[in-house]
């Protein structure tokens, strides 16, 4: 191989938009980033930018993406990670529960990608779209009641496959990452209300532990980089092996 693994995985000089060495533009619904993000900004001056945005608002979404494109003049990649989850029995889901999840997980994802792809095509950039999906799109999650959330992630999974086909002629790649149990703020808040989930998080995965956000880093980097230039339409599962034991959770717990 003429290129090293390091060079294939490099994002140097690229502009990446994250909806939650590259120049990275991060959007999130809160007005100001947290302390950890601010610390990272200080470590990478001029390379990490924050834009408050509610992806359920068309006006905000268009405005923020226009800001990003105006500031950086290009976009090479997008990570769609905005998502909310309601964990309750099917018959207890309210109209508002379902609509809110659809607005963030489905509509927000769809139009963030549309804004990005439009700019990529205008500039002739063969970029990469990475959509954070979930193992719940294809497998029941033990200990949870996630009918609406799982349905919204099924939308993301299917959307990615269709976009991978439609955008291939423009050289734009589209892939998903399906995490299993990851120790995110959202999952930890659910576990705080459900002590039984702590055991499930750590014992259901065959690897015997809950996933950490760091476990997703190389998966995201790979799909954004030229190291995956011939990969599109893939669902990269990062779940500690849970998908290979789906249906046998009771015997393993």
Automatic annotation (TrEMBL):
Domain of life: Eukaryota
Coiled coil: none
Keywords: Oxidoreductase
GO molecular function, one term: oxidoreductase activity, acting on the CH-OH group of donors, NAD or NADP as acceptor
InterPro entries linked: NAD(P)-bd_dom_sf, SDR_fam
Any one Pfam family match given in the protein's UniProt record, by short name: adh_short_C2
Family designation: Belongs to the short-chain dehydrogenases/reductases (SDR) family.
The protein's name: Uncharacterized protein
């Amino acid at each position: 191989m003429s290129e090293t693994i390091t060079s294939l995985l490099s994002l140097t000089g690229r502009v990446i938009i994250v909806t939650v060495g590259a120049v990275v533009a991060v959007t999130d619904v809160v007005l100001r980033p947290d302390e950890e993000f601010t610390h990272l900004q200080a470590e990478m001056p001029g390379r990490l930018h924050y834009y408050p945005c509610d992806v359920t608002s068309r006006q905000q979404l268009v405005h923020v993406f226009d800001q990003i494109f105006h500031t950086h003049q290009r976009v090479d990649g997008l990570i769609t990670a905005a998502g909310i989850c309601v964990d309750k029995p099917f018959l207890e889901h309210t109209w508002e529960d379902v609509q809110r999840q659809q607005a963030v997980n489905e509509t927000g994802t769809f139009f963030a990608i549309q804004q990005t792809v439009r700019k990529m095509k205008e500039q002739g950039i063969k970029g990469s779209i990475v959509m954070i999906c979930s193992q719940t799109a294809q497998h029941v999650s033990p200990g949870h009641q996630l009918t609406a959330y799982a349905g919204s992630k099924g939308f993301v999974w299917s959307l990615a496959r269709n976009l991978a086909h439609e955008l291939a002629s423009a050289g734009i790649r589209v892939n998903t990452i399906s995490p299993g149990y990851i120790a995110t703020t959202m999952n930890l808040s659910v576990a705080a209300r459900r002590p039984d989930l702590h055991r499930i998080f750590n014992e259901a995965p065959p690897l015997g532990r809950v996933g950490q956000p760091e476990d997703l880093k190389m998966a995201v980097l790979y799909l954004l980089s030229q190291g995956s230039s011939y990969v599109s339409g893939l669902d990269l599962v990062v779940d500690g092996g849970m998908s290979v034991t789906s249906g046998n959770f009771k015997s393993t717990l």
